[in-house]
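Q: Fold this one first, please.
A: Sequence and structure below.
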Amino acid sequence: MKISIALKACGVAVLLTGLAACGGGGGASDGQAGQASTGTGSVANTPASLVPVAAVPVTYSPVGDVAIDSIGFLNALRQTIGLRVLPQNAAIARAAQNHADYMVANGVNGHYEIAGRPGFTGIDPQSRIAALYPSGFTGEVNIVLSVSGPSASNGIDSLLPIHTLIDAPFHRIVMLSDFGATGVAVDTNFVPGAVSWAEALNIDFADNAKTLGSNHLVAYPYDGQTGISTTWVANENPNPLNDVPQFIGANVGYPVTLQGASTDKLSIRSFLITSQGTNVPCQLVDPDTASIGAELHGAAVCTPLHPLQAGAPYTATVSGIRNGQPFTVDWSWTTAS
């Protein structure tokens, strides 16, 4: 069985301003070698710090249903990182289902619909969500799996879609944002014996919960995390390697993200990734990045240009300006053996 993946992220859409973020990545690359930090998620005389993570990671046991497992896994991860659990809302879920159905019916992926096509309910996520759940603060991520090869059953790991979304930095940033509620939906045209079919997962978000502390930043991989993948296939849209196109679609290192509130004004001055004192070249994008920074709000991504080492410790040290205040934070994680 062969599985092809298409995924696009549409971040925060703010009513009145018309802002819409759909991803993250790009910018600077082979910076100078940095000095590895202690990796304690510490702050160096700055007004910002990382959200404290749980002492013990919150685990989730899948039940085999893509929709249930996607929100279950996401909320467990959010709890571990120190974020609020996202309550599910039936109206938002209906909006998400409408678009999942549209993608499968029309053989497309992404966030925009064309009037007159089967299942059309709104041009963009903001209009579709707000029609059922009035909100001026919305977001959406989705992924479509195209599967080929005869099969008597669907056979797709129920956690594959959400894992893929978390790995992709633009999508991750949306899912780790401070939304107030969510709705999750899945559609598929699989039938037993089919030689090819599609499965779409669509997650919609609404409302600004405003629970993230004004001095808090969210990092991923989170401080102390273990078992992080050494590689990531750079096939996201928007693509974090937009400014180094030779790496698009390649096996690169696992992307690292840092974000505050989506309404924050964030500018990164230095984003260093090191392993035992050795600098790891990474491609940076933040809201100031000319080519793709408009897709980011209050967030930054640095994607290592080459696969990471297995079973190795890594540290990120990031300095910048957040809402006019300078900050420096550092944290560490370990890759899978």
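Q: Good. Now the second chain.
A: Here it is, same layout.
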Amino acid sequence: MKERDKVCLLMWDEMLLQPHVDYDAKKKHILGFEDFGNKRRARFADHVLVFMIRGVQSGWKFPLVYYFCDGATKTDQLIEWVKDIAKIIIDSGLYLVAFVCNDGKRNLTAINKLKLESARLKLKQRQLYYGYITIKKQDIIPLYDPPCLIKSIRNNLLNNDLEFDVEEGEERKFASWEIIEQAHHMDLTHSTYRLMPKITAEHVIKNKIKKKKVKNAAQVLSMTMGGFIHHHTKLEEKKGRDTAEIILFFDRLFDSVNGHTLKPEKPLRVAISHNSPHFPFWERAVKRLQRMRFVDRKDKNQIRDSNVLKNWISTIGGLRKLWIILKAYEFKCLKPRILNLDSLQHFFGQIRSFGIRNTNPTCAEFESSFKTLLINNLTSPRTVENNSENKIDGSLLFTLKEFLNRKIESRYNDDLMLDLERPLDATHDYLNICNFIAAKILNNSRIKGCDTCKNLLADITKSELVSSNDLIETFRSAEDLLTSKMSGVCYVHHAALMLETELYIQMDLRWLNCPQHDVQLKKFLVSHVVTFYICKWCNSINDILTEKEHDDLK
């Protein structure tokens, strides 16, 4: 790998999951709880946080790690993970130069705390601080995802006016969503031919807007909309002119952070180079953003709870600093579209569309899809519902195919899911279950054909396979013991091994005294009983989770 190809960024984002528990027979634990790798907690996971690295030069990518969480990740935990993962990347020999995340409150707080730590470190070392995050002597630039920033501008504008070019003694200038609504209505009703055919109700009408779609936000804050408003004489002149001016400004600003080719699609929608127009534009843009503020639509007082303008300023400043760093690695150009969350959002889209369309997969489904996508090199070039405008996506840094020497087996022992829909409260249920377990054990290649084992597990007076009284009573006792222990171990790593150990310690298994298969017989019985119990327990918990979800939707 060339030195320039080692220059990379670290990005992270969260994805919603369906609360659901599943038994992983390979790892002998239950998926669906909070899982931080080195520790698990007794909370049902409904989010997954994924970290991905991406090459700044060629755009290669690799999903590094994921964590299952109950709710959005807590700030202190996020900071710990960011620092730990950054250290691993740096120690691997890669050159980590940037962090990329969305502008959510927890990310803002985490970035600010990391910057404060770095500022104190520089002060202690008697060095100047330039806004970097320093980890293992590596200066890393924090950037906020531009597609998220353009969505935030649109979302703030829905309910507030944007005042700009604020100067003492000057006439106030406001951009208003009301003008955008009027423009859309005029285009629908007053034109022989629509001038904005791509603009629909999902772009403009507040209760129909798809707020998570970047494409909709970018299209409504575009040259097409700005030009229509600017040239339409029937719109209120000053208010329309002001709104058009701010729309055209954000169209150019988004273009400047969205280029991916050396040949300009639009003046600023191009890769950054030494003499590109980005730098003089950004200098003017920062000054203009500093003189903007969102205000209440009625009283025109400033809205204090919006940080999106500051985040734009921070990201533009970060891009300017990043270019200085990249020149030291002999970069001739930089494709700014690489510096966003599109690759990770694309990955999420592939997870959701894997196999069947699944908007919120379970932890088990996510983990299975994650591994399969790594093995298959994330081969799908684009995802139908990808939340981005990205037309390019880098290749996977490497795949896991080289590590596979055998067929991938299912993680679940589906055979043991027999009759799990009925409660274990009747004698015939215990008998049926024990008959099934006895058949599984006696058909095992290590035991098959042993008359002693058959006499221990089955009633030899019956013509067909019927469990012995010892087996049925052992199963009853095991169920009581497992029920008393389950709540304390259900969420931990290797929970099944812990439950098996409890059965070995506390159950009287001396009746399983086959001279030839004593160890195997006990091992198989304990394993099957524990697996059956855990699967039954998971089904019961999932019924509760499903019922709760239905109640929440009412």
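Q: Anything worth noting on the second one?
A: Residues 33 and 273 are 47 Å apart (CA to CA).
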